[in-house]
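Allow me, if you will, to draw on your knowledge of protein folds for a short while. I have a record of one protein: its chain in single-letter code and its fold written as discrete structure tokens. The full record is reproduced below for your convenience:
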Amino acid sequence: MTTLLDAGRSESSNPPADVLERIRSIIPEVATRAAEGELQRAVPADVIDSLRSAGVFRMTLPEVWGGEELGLPEASEVVREIARADASTAWVVQVGAMSSLFLRGLPLKTLEDEIFSAGSNSDLLFRGVLAPKGKATRVDGGYKISGRWPLASGSYTPDWVLAGFLVEGASPLPNGRPDIRVAVVRPEEIAFLDTWDAVGLRATQSDDFTMDEVFVPEHRTGPLFGDNNIPAPFYNLPYPPSGGSHDAVVIGVLQGALDDLAELAAVKRPMFNPRIVLGEDPVFQESFGSLRLRTDALTALTRENNRTVMDRVLREETPTPVEWLRYEGGHQLIHRQGVEILNEILTLAGSAAIYSNSTLQRRWRDLRCVAQHVVANGGQVRALGAALSGLQ
């Protein structure tokens, strides 16, 4: 029997069954502990430990480095499954799992000998910020870097911290972009600040961090826009490659909200028609069915886009400009329409959704927070329209 999960897979990429099966035993605990995580402003440490043991933080890494080597479609399915239970936990997972994408410009020797230790240390936890909030001066053997970086998600003590920076006086790249570089530093070399007190994704601990004249050797830095030195096809995707996992958080939240609404429909009685339950109301039925189909359409879009670009790199090709802009434009559409769908779900749920003990209100706040991310607000749909119109 073909399932929706099967339909979303690429025949040419690795099946995610092992990772998915391992996390499915953890999902009930993720859902049960979500309120605790929100109160503590951190995913519970034992939940992180269970997810780490299940392999989610190594799921995109090369097999030769001890990773699962999942492609974009499969890794996104793992994130979606977790987001259906709790968005904060899924966000922490996708940040930790996808951070290695931005290490690909580091020298191979650094990656193998220092970061991943030739496959003996693949369950690493990363935090960081790629925006070039750091300023660096060149010194003998590397850089001295200072700055303050906001929104470094990850409710755990990281093994490494990523920090985007600009070199003082450096020329831009030939295409006009600034030469943004990424430094990898030990957590003891930076200071995290307790700044994360937000309306949504409260358990992600997305704090600021600072560095003050920290020396980083040249070999622990690399270009943000550059060649790939990680031996797995996933890492050959163009920049920025991680939007598919952001989409997965949106889709998972919507699916979880639809689950909540279905439970409510079976027991809630309309205020002015207590003879029936909400699910028997034909107006409710029409709206609920439409919301499900709209969510399914967004799910199909992200799966198709993920599969298209991943299959290109599996064939050692580069996605066409339209394919890549469709992938990027899909992020914008999925996030914006996801917010609209969840708004309508809350309207259907009525007053039950506004209480603090309702998972719907938490999902709504989480999704609204996800939709503020730059991946959903970069003008990608406009760029796609230009490409479709024959413009470069």
User: Anything to note?
Assistant: The chain has 13 helices and seven strands. Confidence is low (pLDDT under 50) at residues 1-15. The first strand starts at residue 126 and ends at 139. The longest helix spans residues 282-314.
